[in-house]
Amino acid sequence: MTQCLTLYPMRLAPLQSICNKILASRDCLLKFMNDTCTMFRVLIHRTFATKYPNFLPQEMLGFILRCTPTNPSLHFPPKNVPLHAFCSMINHPNPHSNSPSFAEQRCVILQCCTTLSKLKQTHAIFLRASVFESNPSPFMWNLIIRAYVRHGSPRKAMTSLFLMSQACVLPDHYTLPIALKACTQALSLSCGIQLHCQAFKLGLELHEHVQCALVYFYGAFGAIGSAHQVFNENPNRKLGSWNALMVSYGQLGSPQKVLNLFFKAQKVVEPDEITMITVIIACGALGNLPLGFQVHGLSVKAFSRLLVYNSLIDMYCKCGMINKAGRVFDEMHERNVSSWTAMIMGMAVHGHGLDALSHFGSMQRAGVRPNHVTFVGVLSACVHAGLVDEGLCFFGSMASEYGLEPMVQHYGCMVDLLGRAGRLKEARSLIESMPMTMVPNAIIWGSFLGACHVHGDVEMGEWASMHLMELEPENDGVYVVLSNIYAGANMWREVANIRKMMRERMVAKTPGYSLATV
Fold first, then answer.
1. d(CA 165, CA 155)
2. Cβ–Cβ < 8 Å for 380, 345
3. Distance, CA of 58 to CA of 101 (rounded, Å)
4. How buried is residue 218: exposed, middle or buried, by Cβ count under 10 Å (0-12/13-18/19+)?
5. Tens digit of pLDDT for each residue in 148-187?
6. Which pTM does this prediction carry?
7. 115: how many CB neighbours lie within 10 A of its CB?
8. Distance between CA atoms of 16 and 43, rounded to whole angstroms?
């Protein structure tokens, strides 16, 4: 049999002709499936054309449960095989099968739904097979809600939660965190508050997973007071709750409060990787290098992982220590797109444009595919280095070579690049060529207006200021820059008109100030 595979590895007709013989021996079947992925597919197709509809699916699912996570070449469900054929085992169990439990089989089916359409089809089959009615526990409901959340369909997840309540199945401490995540994705604060009330009624509000999810939920909506209240209600707080509150403060731009929480948490819990990453980000935001060095030593000793190294690179770049960030980058045994992007962005922001582009070339040679953030760093490097033609080339390669449609940030970089080079007409054409779904923001108009001021182009400056005033009528900087453009062209009457307009609209120039951190 192994010789047959060797002689005919890709010819399906000879393999199909021996399928019926293989079906006679289960041990031989499993060995044969392990030998080749081609035979795996052939057996699946052949099974549904034979008289063994109840024997093979469960064995196949057992095989998938063991091998699919480590063998991505096994396509499941196989092409040209109806999904309902794989789900037929729900109505036709085989009690003599040495296969995973039905719960594990359903987990495998849901995990193998690689698209939202397949997930919806599987959900429909489960409903038709009365899976939820025959299993009144929340387990199956949790599976389907989690699957919809994983596929970025929070509305469907919330609908399943509603159907779960209609079926008189109470949520447990696994249901509520998943449902709260769906509410966060759907930006539904009211639904999350209702879930909080339900958790209180069921006595689950102090459960570790539920409390952590509630803190994350309120923090994501900026309700930090509610998040802190939930956090304080449990005297026996676990690490997850501390992490959730620290992440919430970090997202709201309060890095000092993150560090204060970290110092308190150290006294009662042992920090993990998420804790250290959150603290590293806070150190970078504050520019607190002494604490950053300490956290670096602690993190590398305990958590030598990719995310920690990426956070350290970002921290050192934000603190202006590009050489230190480079040493951390060189120490990494494994690098992903975030690692390369952090270095490129750091070098670009601090004016090392040529070094950033050199790193981008090394990234391409390493076979790492860039993303949208990477190209923001590359275009920023071109801006700081004054490489106009190279920037245009990189901008064009986003869609042509990598299939990445430029976003507002990329257009902003290109307008800044062309504006600094004095190519204002090209910059205007680029702004006017932006897709209808992509409206130029205040940063793009401000960058273009600044370029008009530098190069003394009154006509372009008037055009940019008109659009910028529509977006931000109370922005005093627009009036001041336009007034300076008129003054540079000796158009004093227009300067007086701008000052009069500012008084009529009650727009005052914001006084400058300096800030020192002690």
1. 16
2. yes
3. 9
4. buried
5. 998 888 999 998 888 888 888 899 999 999 999 999 999 9
6. 0.74
7. 9
8. 8
CA-CA distances (angstroms) from residue 408 to 157, 415, 421? 31, 10, 20
Q: What is the DSSP secondary structure assignment for residue 303, as one 8-state letter?
A: -
3-state class of 266 per DSSP?
coil
Angle at 23 between CA 22 and CA 25, to 5 degrees: 75
Structure tokens at 232: 């304080």
Q: Tokens 């970078």 — which residue?
A: 284
For residues 88 and 94, give the distance between their C-alpha atoms in angstroms, rounded to a whole number: 11
Closest C-alpha among 315, 366, 303 to residue 342: 315
Domain range summary for the chain, segments of one domain joined by +: 1-95
What token pair was written down for 398? Answer: 């986003």
| pLDDT tens digits for range 436-488 | 888 899 999 999 999 999 999 999 999 999 999 999 888 888 999 999 999 99
Distance between CA atoms of 441 and 445, rounded to whole angstroms? Answer: 7
| Residue matched to tokens 């599976």 | 143
CB-CB contact of 334 with 328 (8 Å):
no
User: How far is the C-alpha of 500 from the C-alpha of 506, rounded, in Å?
Assistant: 10
Q: Is residue 80 left, alpha or beta, with left meaning phi > 0 and alpha meaning psi from -120 to 50?
A: left
Q: What ranges in 457-504 are assigned the alpha helix state H?
A: 458-471, 476-488, 492-504
Which ranges constitute the DSSP H helices of 202-271? 208-220, 224-233, 239-251, 255-265
Residues contacting residue 278 through CB under 8 Å, at least 6 positions apart: 243, 246, 247, 250, 258, 262
- Please answer whether residues 216 and 196 qualify as being in contact, where contact means their C-beta atoms are separated by less than 8 angstroms: no
